[in-house]
Amino acid sequence: MHFSQVRITRCIYTKRKKSDSKFRITKPTVDDIEPLWKWGEENWELWSDSKNKWYTKKSLTKWVRDPRKDILLVAKIDGKPVGMCMTYVLRDWGYCTGLFVDKQYRGLGIGQTLMKETVKRLRKRRIDLLSFMVDARNAKGLKLFKKLGFRRGFDSICMYKTLRK
Fold first, then answer.
1. Dihedrals phi, psi of 152, to nearest 5 degrees
2. What φ, ψ does residue 80 adopt, rounded to 5°?
3. Is the CB of residue 110 less than 8 Å from the CB of residue 102?
4. DSSP H/E element including 42
5. Band of residue 18 on the pLDDT scale cut at 50, 70, 90
6. pLDDT at 3 > cutoff 60
7. Phi, psi for residue 156 in degrees, rounded to 5
8. Using an 8 Å Cβ cutoff, are 134 and 6 in contact?
9. Which residues make beta-bridge pairs with 24?
């Protein structure tokens, strides 16, 4: 995995259309938990490791109900979640734990728009650094992040310790 960061400078927020697919960026609701959780269960790009995968339904529900200062966004087409960007706000910097677009909706600019909207909201709060971890095998994700101006940071190894048995 690589630790990547970018100094947030200027962000132009645009929605790109491919055919007639229009999407809307909004905050997630409790009704969105199931697809968000399912993406986390089924897509290795979001995992820390194969045992712990992503967030549980319970933790996602708690986070969506009480995001505090975090920035949680979903992209929807006809009311159906098709992508998400989940970002913690840690004092004076942001840490994105998940940018994901459902495979059948990729290429519509949804991931790019989610990240740009996240950057816009962070800048509004005077936060000037956004970082995240991306798996080195995630070539499409790496390409998108480079396109959005992110730079490669130090190589790192994700480590964890299970606290409950």
1. -70, 135
2. -100, 125
3. no
4. helix 33-42
5. very low
6. no
7. -145, 165
8. no
9. 76
Can you give the pLDDT at residue 136? 82
**Residue 94 to residue 131: CA distance in whole angstroms:** 6
Helix (H, G, I), strand (E, B), or coil: what is residue 111?
A: helix
Tell me what pLDDT residue 96 has.
94
**C-alpha–C-alpha distance, residues 60 and 55, integer Å:** 6
H-run or E-run covering 83 = strand 80-90
Beta strands in 23-164 (DSSP E): 24-26, 71-77, 80-90, 93-101, 129-134, 151-155
| pLDDT one-digit tens code per residue, 106-126 | 999 999 999 999 999 999 999
Q: Can you give the length of the chain in residues?
A: 165
One-letter amino acid for residue 99 of the chain:
L
Q: Give the chain's domains with CATH numbers.
A: 2-151 (3.40.630.30)
* Burial label, 47 (beta-carbon count in 10 A; 0-12, 13-18, 19+): middle
